[in-house]
Write a structure and sequence with these properties.
heterotrimer, A mainly alpha (722), B mainly alpha (171), C mainly alpha (100), A: 722 residues, mainly alpha, 2 strands, elongated, C: Helix Hairpins
Chain lengths: 722, 171, 100
């Protein structure tokens, strides 16, 4: 098969390389990473991600030249029991191709960014040898996500689902022995555990849905056969399946009530937040619902529930974001809110709109997170330079020129003591005026903000608008919830911009912040371009709707809505008003000092306190679930397991009786008295016999003669009586 | 009829003398009783038509062997011995067994192996010389080897007796 | 009439008396004499049968028995003399060195 034929029929045989390239990357880094320089390690990981991206492009191309025909490519047989056959099959259609492109594309950019970011972060936390581990995990995540989006059955999707959950855990808890301020603490590992456990609750829902699918929809997980069987299934089953799937989506895509892990997940390094918790893993839930559209389209009640959950989450999270001070926390709640938008969209059946927003959100949220990371590092650099003065500045400059070779831990002035000060470089109250100290980052952040707020002609406007348009036509409740959420979105993003980049620097660290190196800013530029131009993917005008047409191959008929000036106008106006209000509160009289209370505190009073404290959801979960669980566990462990089972049953009953049997019953009675006596008596008997028989040899001749006579008598007697 | 009476009387004497030998405390008395017994048995031999053996019995047994016995009894001065101290059950058990054996033997003889031919004493006209000739012929023809061996045996016994004495002297 | 049974019965009785003597008496000389009695009883049986079967073999056998008895007595008495010299008494119960 040479290239021209391939080009015409498709590159489908390359499908497994989506997964294999990241796996090869992680293996090379795992085996040889110690001997490679940091740049090489990062390059290997990024090249692996890039190769995966190229494969995705080729696969998307293959789909398009075959007019969206679905290609299923089996890699390996897996479970074969009797009639059951579950295999690892790749499904290449327009939907999965879209996800592949987004995941690997944004993923590659983030890999490149992470080279620069982790170079500084491992030095800040004095753990240079962990650099390689980060890229191994990152590639592992990419491989798992690829398995998820390319799977041809719910089973393969679940494999990837679990895989990304694992990688999320590993990456959130990357700095497992510290907290975000690098002090020794359980905080980061607790955050990782929280993510895993909450996700587990979602996975439980997914598993129930999976079991129902297998049992009722044709003993298979494969998409086509499931959807075919669903047409004839009783609707209650479909409702059950879709709602349990919603539980899984709530876990993975951070919807109510299982969103609580995502804000804590900001404990992980910023590239992790960007890749996993903004662009890719959290969108897996949206992908799942879109993929299951035949099931959802059958049951409108379930769809309504999904849409409501998404909309309520969007508003709820947006309100919390208003009261947060940590730059990444704001973005985390923003992510939850935007995911709510997506879930609401697919819940209403507007799969194209939801997916459109997924793609644009990936661009600008990744941009925002990575820029936030850049800001945080800038403040850290400023703080670092302050603590060590001029001498360190020169040293720092030399470092940048030499390039990123791995160095020995460098601690001439005792960094650990500094960090014990608990200076939080991510707290927005410690920033201010950063547009002068970090201009490139400022512009990038601004582009991301505008995109997120949804101002035309940036990408976010088009995608969010399409969702609002759809909502206005199909579900008024959802429309109003989402519109208010959009208002808040613009508000808190404006608040963020004014607090961080405008005004005067509130701390010395912010005053001395430094711009990030090109290896970090260049990928951001790419993302910024995408955030600006990304709207072109699916402009709602006649002749455009490219994404819609593309996804039509998979989704069947798609309702294409044309641009509605009314809806668009309302949303844009609200966004501008929100930004204006935020300027009035935060921009006109910027905070002068770090510990000044937030201007909204007085007017909103307890409402703002509620926003600040995330509406106490975590505390409620703790009281309702965690404490009873801990008490139950303590009870089970101590009373039942230890005192009852171990002490009583095991020690007293089993060991005691065993000892009794062994030592007393068997040893004393059976063995000593019984058996010993029996066998000793044998010895005694034989002794007695021999002692008595010996008496025959008494040396007296007469008795010998007597015995002769006795013998004679006996023989004669025998002969007589014979 | 007469031979039966003769037999009974003689057997009575024989048994009596045997019992006398058994029961007498004095060893000399026992020896003398035994001599009497031998003489009676010699008479029996005559009755059974074995004159040579009768003479041999008297000469050798009663004459030589018993004299030797008496000689040793006198030499050792072992006429009387104190009563037995060990093996208290020996005597009763021996008597019992002997009685049993006697009963068994009598029974065997008279109940199982009865014979009818009478044994007659040789008549007056029995030719002793002829008897002797025939016996000698038999002895030196058929039983030559045992005869020679017996002579060797006697020689050995003599040597043995002498050696036993001699050893005692040198040792 | 006297048949050979009578002679055999007599021989048996004499033999038993001799055996009794061997078992009961402690004086070795008496024991020896009892042995002679036993041999004698056997001789009587031999001669009785020789007379019945009119064969000389029985009598010649008796001849040999007498010779052997003589030899045996000679050696035996020599031994008894030796023992007496060693132990100063001839109580047969004292000669139990082979006691096991």
């Amino acid at each position: 098969m040479h290239l021209s034929e391939t080009v015409h029929t498709g590159f489908y045989f390359l499908a497994p390389w989506l997964v294999f390239f990241p796996v090869i990357g992680l293996l090379i880094n795992a085996i040889f990473g110690k001997r490679m320089s940091e740049n090489q390690v990062g390059a290997v990981a990024s090249v692996a991600a890039g190769a995966s991206f190229i494969v995705s492009i080729l696969l998307a191309y293959s789909v398009s030249i075959n007019h969206g025909e679905v290609m299923r490519w089996q890699l390996a047989p897996w479970i074969h029991i009797g009639n059951l056959a579950l295999d690892w099959t790749f499904r290449i259609d327009s939907l999965s191709a879209t996800m592949m492109l987004v995941v690997s594309g944004v993923g590659t950019l983030i890999h490149i960014y992470a080279i620069g970011y982790m170079h500084e972060d491992v030095r800040y936390k004095q753990q240079e040898n962990r650099f390689v581990r980060f890229f191994i995990y990152l590639n592992m995540f990419l491989a798992a996500m690829m398995i998820l989006v390319s799977g041809d059955s719910y089973l393969m999707l679940f494999v990837g689902w679990e895989g990304v959950g694992l990688c999320s855990f590993l990456l959130i808890g990357f700095w497992f022995e510290m907290d975000t301020l690098a002090r020794p603490s359980w905080a980061n590992s607790d955050a990782a555990k929280k993510a895993f456990i909450v996700n587990r609750v979602g996975d439980f829902g997914f598993l129930i849905a999976g079991f129902l699918i297998f049992w009722y929809l044709g003993n298979s997980f494969q998409f086509d056969s499931v959807f075919e069987a669903a047409k004839n299934a009783p609707p209650e089953i479909i409702v059950a399946i879709t709602l349990f799937m919603l539980v899984g989506v709530a876990g993975k895509s951070a919807q109510i009530p299982l969103y609580v892990w995502l804000p804590d997940a900001m404990a992980g390094p910023t590239p992790v937040s960007a890749l996993i918790h903004a662009a890719t893993m959290v969108t897996a839930g949206v992908y799942l619902i879109t993929r299951s559209f035949p099931l959802y389209d059958l049951v409108h009640e379930a769809q309504n529930i999904v849409a409501l959950v998404g909309a309520v989450t969007a508003l709820f999270a947006a309100t919390i974001a208003v009261g947060q001070y940590d730059i990444k926390r704001v973005l985390a709640y923003s992510t939850i809110s935007q995911l709510g938008f997506m879930v609401a969209a697919v819940g209403m059946g507007a799969y194209v709109a939801g997916f459109f927003h997924l793609i644009t959100h990936a661009f600008f949220k990744a941009l925002l997170f990575l820029s936030a990371g850049s800001v945080i590092l800038g403040v850290e650099r400023g703080h670092h330079h302050l603590a060590h003065g001029h001498h360190h500045d020169e040293h720092g400059k030399k470092k940048k020129k030499e390039g990123r070779k791995k160095e020995k831990p460098h601690d001439p002035h005792g960094h650990a003591d500094d960090h014990a000060e608990a200076f939080d470089p991510g707290d927005m109250r410690n920033m201010g005026g950063m547009r002068k100290t970090m201009p490139v980052t400022f512009w990038l952040y601004l582009i991301g903000t505008i995109a997120l707020a949804g101002l035309p002609p940036f990408a976010g406007f088009w995608s969010k608008d399409e969702i609002l348009l759809d909502a206005s036509l199909h579900n008024q409740t959802v429309y109003w919830l989402l519109t208010i959420a959009a208002f808040f979105t613009a508000f808190y993003m404006g608040r963020q911009i004014w607090m961080v980049f405008f005004g005067e620097a509130r701390t010395d660290a912010a005053k001395h912040a430094e711009e990030s190196p090109k290896v970090m800013t260049l990928p951001l530029v790419a993302l910024a371009i995408l955030s600006v131009a990304g709207g072109a993917l699916n402009l709602p005008f006649k002749g455009f709707h490219q994404l819609g047409h593309w996804l039509e191959y998979t989704l069947g008929h798609v309702e294409t809505l044309s641009f509605n000036a009314g809806v668009a106008g309302i949303s844009t106006a609200l966004a501008l008003i929100a930004i204006l209000i935020s300027w009035l509160i935060y921009g006109r009289n910027p905070l002068k000092k770090a510990n000044q209370p937030d201007p909204l505190k007085k007017p909103l009073g307890f409402i703002f306190t509620g926003m600040e404290n995330k509406w106490y959801v975590d505390k409620i979960y703790n009281a309702l679930i965690r404490q009873p669980f801990k008490k139950l566990a303590a009870f089970l462990a101590d009373v039942i397991d230890w005192r009852f089972w171990h002490d009583f049953v095991h020690d007293t009953v089993i060991v005691g009786s065993y000892n009794w049997i062994g030592q007393i019953a068997l040893n004393k009675y059976a063995d000593q008295k019984g058996i010993d006596r029996f066998f000793n008596s044998w010895a005694d008997v034989s002794y007695w016999i021999s002692a008595n028989v010996r008496k025959i040899q008494n040396g007296f001749v007469r008795s010998y003669a007597l015995s002769v006579l006795l013998g004679v008598v006996l023989i004669l007697g025998y002969l007589i009586f014979k | 009829m007469t031979d039966l009476i003769v037999f009974l009387v003689l057997s009575l004497v024989a048994i009596a003398s045997a019992l006398g030998m058994l029961f007498s405390r004095n060893a000399v008395y026992s020896a003398l009783f035994l001599v009497l017994n031998f003489v009676v048995v010699a008479v029996f031999y005559l009755l059974l038509g074995a004159p040579f053996i009768a003479m041999a019995q008297i000469t050798v047994y009663a004459g030589a062997i018993m004299v030797l016995f008496l000689f040793v009894i006198m030499l050792l001065g072992a006429e009387n011995l104190p009563p037995s101290q060990s093996l208290p059950w020996q005597r009763p058990l021996a008597i019992l067994l002997s009685v049993v054996l006697a009963v068994q033997s009598i029974y065997l003889v008279f109940a199982r192996a009865r014979s009818n031919t009478p044994i007659l004493p040789p008549g007056a006209s029995a030719n002793t010389v002829e008897h002797l000739q025939q016996m000698a012929l038999e002895l030196f023809n058929k039983f030559l080897l045992p005869f020679e061996v017996t002579s060797v045996l006697l020689l050995v016994a003599m040597i043995g007796a002498i050696v036993l004495n001699k050893r005692e002297k040198t040792g | 009439m006297v048949t050979v049974d009578y002679y055999v019965a007599l021989s048996a009785i004499l033999f038993i008396i001799g055996a009794l003597g061997v078992l009961v008496r402690r004086n070795p000389l008496i024991i020896f004499m009892s042995i002679e009695l036993m041999l004698n009883a056997a001789n009587l049986a031999f001669v009785a049968f020789a007379s019945v079967y009119e064969s000389f073999s029985g009598q010649i056998f008796v001849f040999f028995v007498i010779a052997v008895a003589a030899a045996e007595v000679a050696v035996g008495l020599a031994l008894i003399v030796e023992i007496f010299k060693a132990k100063k008494n001839i109580n047969i119960d004292e000669m139990n060195s082979l006691k096991g």
